[in-house]
Amino acid sequence: MAILVVLLSILLLVFLVAYLRLNTFIAFLVVCLFMGLALRMKIADITQSVQTGIGKTLGSLVIIIVFGSMLGKLVAESGAAQRIANGLMHVFGRKYVQWSLMLTGFIVGIPLFYNIGFVLMVPLIFTVAARTKLPAVYLGIPMLASLSVTHGYLPPHPSPTALVGTFHANMGITLLLGMVVAIPSIILAGPVFSRFLKKYTQEPAPLFNIAALPEEQLPSMLNSILAALLPVILLAGTALLKLVVAPGSVCFKVATWLGDPVIVMLLAVFNGIYILGLRRGTPVKKVMSLLDEAIRDVSVIILIIGGSGALTQMLLDSNVSKVIETGFRNMHMNPLLLAWSIAALIRVSVGSATVAGLTTAGIVAPIVASSSINPSLMVLATGAGSLMFSHVNDGGFWMFKEYFNLSVKDTFKTWTVMETIVSVVGLGVCLLLSLFV
Predict the structure, then answer these.
(1) In this predicted model, what pLDDT tens digit does every residue of 369-393 receive, in sequence order?
(2) What is the tens place of the pLDDT at every residue in 17-35?
(3) Where are the transmembrane segments (predicted)?
(4) CB hemisphere CA count around 5 (13 angstroms)
(5) Cα(143)–Cα(87) distance, rounded to whole angstroms?
(6) At what angle do helices 417-433 and 375-385 cross, to 10 degrees?
(7) 148, 389 contact by CB (below 8 A)
(8) pLDDT for 211-251, tens place per residue?
(9) CA R_g for the chain
C-alpha cells in the first residue's frame, strides 16, 4: 500500500508540473499533502514534516547556491566567459575550434547556472560560426554538452549540491569523481557526436545575435580562469591534500577549513568581487546590484529544492522510506542503475533535471545508507539519469530549437540525442568506477 501511495504521488507530481503547468514548489506541497493524507497522517504532522524538510534541506544549501549564483553573475557580466572563449580559440586554432568551445563550456559552466550559461554562451557560438563559416549546430553541441554535464554532475550547481547532502557524500570527492565521469560524457556527446551534424546549416535566429564586449573591456585570461575555477581548485585541492596528510595535523585542519563548501564559495565570491569588479574600476554599487540580481535569478531554484526536501521528509516521517528500502533491496538491483532509472523516468515525465534528481534522492537515499556503494557515485548516477532524453516538456529543448532556428524534428535529432548520450555514458562510467571505489 505504501509503495502504491508513493507511485501515485510521483504521478501526481508529473501531472501537476508537466500537464497543468503548476508552479513546481506548489506542486511539491500539494503532493506532500496528498501523500500524508493517503498514509493517514494527521494534518499537524504533515505540515510539521513539510516545515522540517524545507528547513533541513535549505539550511545547508541555500548559502552555497546563492554564492554560486553570485559568482556566475560576476563571471557572465564582467566578460570573463568571453575572455576564456577567445583565449582558448586562439590556442586551439580553427582546426580544433570545437574542442576550444567544449573546454570553454566546461570551465564557464562550473560557476554559471545552466540557463544563464546557455544565454551567455550561445551568442559566442554564433560569433565563432560566422568567423569560421562552420555550422552553428556543429559548433554549439560540444559547448552545450559541457554546460549540461556541469549542471547535472558537479557542485556547486543546485541539484548535485543537494544530492551530496542527501546521500551524505563528500563534496570534494564528488567533484573529483565528477570530473572523471564528465570527460568521456562530454567528448562523446560533443566533438564525436557533432561530426554527424555538419548538414544542419540553418542560420541562427537573428534575434539572438548579441554583440560581444570590446576586447579592451575584458578581464585578463588569468583573472577570468582564476575567478571561474577557484571553487574547483579549493574543493579538489583540499580533498586531495586530506588524502595524503595525517589526520589531526595542522595541514589536515587547514584543508578541512578551506574545503568547507560554505568557506569555498564565500572566498570565491570575494575573489570575484575584487578581481572582476572593484580591481577593474567597477563601482561598488554596480557590483552589489549584480549580486542582488543573482539572488533573484536563483530564488525559483531554491524553492524547488525546498519543496523536494519536504517530500523527502514526508517519506521519512511516514516510515515509507523503510518500506521502499526493503522493497528495492529485495529486487537485487544495482543501486546506481536504480537511481539512474528512476531519475531518467522522472526527467522524461517532468522535464526538469533538478526535480528529477531531487525527487529520486528522496526515494533511494535509504538504500545508500544500508549499502556499500560510494555515495559520491550515487550523486553522479542520479545526476546522469536526470539529464536523460530532453524533449518537448523541457525548457532547454525549446531554447535550443529557437536559438539555432531548427524544426522540432531536427531538435530531437541533435539536442535530444546529445542529452541522451551524456546520460547513458555517465551511467556507464559510474558503473565502471564502482568496481574500484
Answers:
(1) 777 889 999 999 999 999 999 887 6
(2) 877 888 888 988 999 999 8
(3) 6-37, 58-76, 96-129, 136-154, 174-193, 225-245, 257-277, 298-316, 336-365, 377-400, 412-436
(4) 22
(5) 15
(6) 160
(7) no
(8) 567 888 889 989 998 988 888 888 888 888 888 888 888 89
(9) 21
The b/e string for 140-159 (b: 16+ C-beta within 10 A; e otherwise) is bbbbbbbbbbbbbbbbbbbb
Cell of 301: 531554484
Q: What one-letter code names the amino acid at 35?
A: M
Distances (CA, A) of 376 to 43, 231, 300, 342: 36, 18, 26, 17
Instruction: Write b or e for each residue in 182-217: b if 16 or more Cβ atoms lie within 10 A of its Cβ, otherwise e.
Output: beebbbbbbbebbeebeebeeebeeebeeeeeeeee
Which class for 323: exposed (0-12), middle (13-18), buried (19 or more C-beta within 10 A)? middle
Handedness of CA 157, 152, 142, 264 (dihedral sign): positive
Alpha helices (H) in 79-135, listed in sequence order: 80-92, 97-109, 114-132
Q: Where are the domains of the chain?
A: 2-433
pTM of the model: 0.77
DSSP string spanning 191-222? IIGGGGGTT--PPPPGGG-PPPPPGGGSPPHH
CA distance 385 to 420: 9
* Sole residue written with cell 576586447: 215
